[in-house]
Amino acid sequence: MELPQLIYLGVIGLYLFFFLLFLRYFVWRHYSNKHYWSKRKVLSAFELEKLAEEKGKKLPMFSILVPAREEADVIGQTIEHLAGLNYPHDLFEIIVITDEKELSSGKSHTTQQVVEDKIREFTTRGNCPVLKHVMVPYDFDGNFQGQGLGKPVPSTKGRALNYGLSFIDGSSDICGFYDAESHPELDVLLYIAQEWINSEKSNRIWQGPVFQVRNFFYLSPITRIASLYQALSHEWYMPVLMKMLPFVGGTNLFIESDLLKRIKGFDCKALTEDLEIGVRAYLAEGAWPDYFPYISTEQTPENYRSFFRQRLRWAAGHIQVIEKFKNTPEYAGPKKNSLLKTLLLKGEVEWTLYQIAVLVPLAVIWLSYKGLIDPSALPDGFRIFLKSLVFIYFGFTYYLYIVKYYRYMKKRGAVNSLMALISLLVLPLAGFLLPLPYTGALILRAFNSQPRAWVKTPRTREIAEVSMKKA
């Protein structure tokens, strides 16, 4: 066998290897359905009260924290949605955390105005949960129970959350965290309360899936594909991932209030404050998060530039977490070393692998152009079979759009739905572009130029309420 034939066989071997990795989705689907999605039950406040009485426990008090800087376009709908959660209104509060710096931005329509209007509306409406508005001072140092420094401090999500934690109700048992555009399923508090009542464990953390598809018809073709596979990963893969890592995603997240106090809240300087607090809660208190099968719909960045910046921050934050705990002697020991190895595997190693995967087709094209491969090493029929595999990728993507996640999207009519269907034909290009932020983070880290500042992700404006349909 000649060298061009051997090169061809090697390339085909890689192609088939990555196709087998794709098939893992169906293994993950089986696992997640068996252990989580098939076990969802109809919940009611009456049954929950009965369960609490049988267990000799009370219904838990929830504090829902929503950081919202420059979120006037979406925060009103989010407040309305959260206020409609199926749970006794006297047993949960909504705390919207805004940023004082927004008032000096010169905008005529601010997040603060929307929240204050909602507070006045709730006062007259009645039968609503307590709605609090707290504003982070420009000089707040960002630490849990921190102080003012007399000079501006950079805004981060962790900084805002730490400030908001000082205002939770004294009887709060569980803190929930949602982004400014989050629309969770209406029974989510009933489920978390049921888990809390049934559990004999302490230091509980729960993380649910987030489907970032609600603004699907406002997205560019590349970010549309990103949103579909992000939702799929949270539905099928996250239950598996959370058996390997104490992963939390920062939204659709619940943490016991006492645990938050003991670990002193969030790291205000972390690019990914969610991953950092999950790792720290495990190392400091042995708290391992549990997956729960109640979704929250959110948004994906509208264009590839915003998507790239968001994912670059996520990747840089992942690397930052590894480096932080690697250099923290406080948590020395085999538990930390094992966790760091898993973080490295699920981060840099897998990012590199996925980037190699999308380079295989480009390599085939280049090698063919140079005459360096000889397909005659395989029978014609088998080569036709290999080419047909591409239709599986396209078919699966259309399945995600039409069957699985269309119902969670804010609809814009038949024409836009058809145009979105056509736009998914850019799947091969998306396969190349979507891993690039993670590759970029590795390259920037090699030159010590990785992002160090938290950057806010722009939102899509929402005017009308989008109803949450149950999965």
From TrEMBL:
Gene Ontology MF term list: glycosyltransferase activity
Keyword terms of this UniProt record: Glycosyltransferase, Membrane, Transferase, Transmembrane, Transmembrane helix
TM spans (from-to): 6-27, 351-369, 381-401, 413-434
Presence of keyword Transmembrane: yes
PANTHER family: CELLULOSE SYNTHASE CATALYTIC SUBUNIT A [UDP-FORMING]
Highest taxon listed in the record's lineage: Bacteria
Keyword Hydrolase among record annotations: no
Name used for this protein in its record: Glycosyltransferase family 2 protein
Protein localization: Membrane
Main subcellular localisation: membrane
Membrane topology value: Multi-pass membrane protein
GO CC, any one term: membrane
Residue ranges occupied by any Glycosyltransferase 2-like domain in the UniProt entry: 179-372
One Pfam family cited in the UniProt record for this chain: Glyco_trans_2_3
Lineage: Bacteria, Bacillati, Bacillota, Clostridia, Thermosediminibacterales
